[in-house]
Hints:
Layout: H1 6-19, H2 38-55, E1 68-76, E2 85-94, E3 100-105, E4 110-115, E5 118-128, E6 130-131, E7 134-135, E8 138-147, E9 150-162, E10 165-178, E11 181-187, H3 194-206, H4 208-235, H5 240-243
Helix pairs in contact: 1-2, 1-4
Amino acid sequence: MLRVTVLCVLVIATAATALSVDSNPEYVKQCSRSDPKLKSCLIDALHHLRPYLSVGIPEIELPPVEPFRMDELTLSLTGGINGYKVQLRELFVRGASNYTVEDIKLGSPFEAIVRMPALILDAHYSSSGVLIILPASGNGTFHARFDDPKALVKGTVSTKVKDGKTYLNVENLDVVLDVKKVHMRVRKIFNNNRILTEATNLFLRENGQEVLKVMEPQLKKKLSALFAGIVNQLLRHVPVEVFLLP
């Protein structure tokens, strides 16, 4: 998940440096291509940027990461005519800015490995169909916590020369997500029907990893589009020669 897609954050960090080399704002930790420990410098720059990503950086039109919002996810959790279907709307995800970059491989294709202590997801919840043997159509709230998520991010970058300057564009992002523990629950559903609420939460407790697998393709698509859009909006205005110093 997101977020988190560390390569996106890397490009945002370099773009922030690019826009502000002369004034050297407090959120920038500069790096040089001649530094024999360039990769370590870039990782340190990413970690330095975390608190600023959390609240946003208006001067470079970077919105806050905490929380970031998605529109909806639609999940089919069981099959059949009366299969159990869930729609999550107005999703808010927290924890993406509290990342640790474990490794990066620069170039195209690029790779990055990032960890976070947890990702927290809250949303409006609606369901339809039959859960186990109980009719389970209703509305309420949904809460999930993904503990110790690790993401392997891969992608490609294209270049374009304009007015003698080189510009980057992130073309593709692919995220392979590994989550150690999944906690999910619903509240205030089925007009606070205790039996249906407990049955739903039992299902979510016992099938958390399976529910996450159903969520993952949509999450990957939405998060990739979100972060690639932010990154490329910046990179369209920032040549490589500016943010990768001698």
